[in-house]
Design brief:
The structure is a single chain. The protein has one domain (6-177): Restriction endonuclease-like alpha-beta roll fold. The protein is 23% helix and 41% strand. The protein contains four helices and eleven strands. The chain has a six-stranded mixed beta sheet. Strands 2-1-8-9-10 form a five-stranded mixed beta sheet. The chain is globular, with a radius of gyration of 16 Å. The mean pLDDT is 94. By secondary structure, the protein is α/β, with parallel strands linked by helices.
Length: 179
């Protein structure tokens, strides 16, 4: 019998003073057995960093044809494609052909190595932005995780914090390439 995904619910309050975006989002997150809590919480963080009324979670890790997050226009065309982790460069380039804007949020202890191996191949993609999340952040975000969460994400002058009743995590995200 296959293991089922665990469902998490998050109330995410976003106060992005840099973009002048303020909204509450009710998120239902499926965490399949193949995904870690750290990765799921990075997806929540990335949702908050790109929050929009039309941004939604894709099937992500369980489907190779969908990203972790995406935003479509009213016709169904993909405006924004977002990957979390260290995706294959062919997958990223394919996404660049399907979407107006592609973003990758790399994280983990080997994200520097991943970027060095792929930077040259990805340089030709004009609609690609690559970000690197500081290595300590995923584990700190996992400490905030509960089956039902109340989270507040604040972005001001390029500084990012995510808070819950469990504590506060300052988030460092560095831009590796502009797109």
């Amino acid at each position: 019998m296959a293991l089922k995904s665990i469902i998490y619910k998050a109330q995410l309050q976003v106060a992005d003073m840099d973009r002048h975006y303020y909204a509450d989002h009710a998120l239902n997150l499926a965490c399949p057995p193949s995904e870690t809590i750290e990765r799921m919480m990075v997806r929540v963080l990335v949702f908050g960093l790109n929050a929009d009324e039309r941004l939604e979670f894709g099937k992500g890790i369980s489907d190779t044809d969908e990203p972790d997050l995406w935003r479509k226009d009213l016709t169904g065309a993909i405006e924004q494609w977002i990957e979390v982790g260290q995706p294959d460069e062919r997958r990223i380039l394919k996404a660049c052909g399907r979407s107006g804007q592609v973003q990758v949020y790399a994280y983990g202890s080997t994200s520097d190595i991943w970027w060095k191996q792929n930077a040259g191949k990805l340089a030709r993609a004009r609609n690609l932005a690559v970000w690197q999340i500081a290595p300590e952040v995923p584990e700190q975000l996992a400490a905030l995780c509960e089956r039902t969460m109340q989270l507040q994400l604040t972005i001001q002058d390029g500084e990012i914090w995510i808070r819950s009743a469990q504590g506060e995590v300052p988030v460092t995200v560095a831009k590796l390439s502009a797109g």
